[in-house]
């Protein structure tokens, strides 16, 4: 399964590396949006179960991964810039679906609030509208190690917090990856965290949700104290077609953590994406359930 690779020019401002996994049997295309400090490699397992049911698009942000050599990266980019890039990719690949992970949900919400005409369904995994106490502590510690360009410190912080439930092999990969990034990537993340820490409540993201009218699925791990299932359900009163799934015995990284979490996440995503759209429900109704292993 080899992707079609291209580096796309986005409005003359950014060059974005993309991977397009084409399926001869798929009728729909889905764009996957990375979390912070991540690259296309982070979605390796996700691609395996989405393809060949869908054409799958992966991409690196201008400052990250295989997009880095094609951009100057003199200045950090904003969430609004990342949202604009996502909207361009949706149009370029004629995508009907979007799936984001972790802080990729911020740019995804901003993009969806503009109601892109092609998008039919969206999934936000490991994301909530609230910066709770655990997340605030993680981000404040992140500001310190990123500001000091403390490479081992960044790796240890991630593995001891949001990555605490990852298998040891994944923790080693995480550490090697995040402790070997370019200085501008740490500066980008420092900039992003500083923005996030200014959000003292859920209003910023729920205002975006108020403008969205497509079916959306929120997937969170039962053990994730940073983006909890309970916090994610705050979106329920702002979205008329919101659904929620809790992955049992899983933390922030969901399908990377163990086989059961992988199966539950796969079943939740495919079940939502392949279901027939239902009539709009009252805005106060939100569906809550636990995804079960097959």
UniProtKB/TrEMBL annotation:
Stretches assigned to the AB hydrolase-1 domain: 29-258
Matches recorded under InterPro entries: AB_hydrolase_1, AB_hydrolase_fold, Carboxylesterase_BioH
Highest taxon listed in the record's lineage: Bacteria
SUPFAM superfamilies reported for this sequence: alpha/beta-Hydrolases
Protein name: Pimeloyl-ACP methyl ester carboxylesterase
Protein species of origin: Pseudomonas indica
UniProt lineage: Bacteria, Pseudomonadati, Pseudomonadota, Gammaproteobacteria, Pseudomonadales
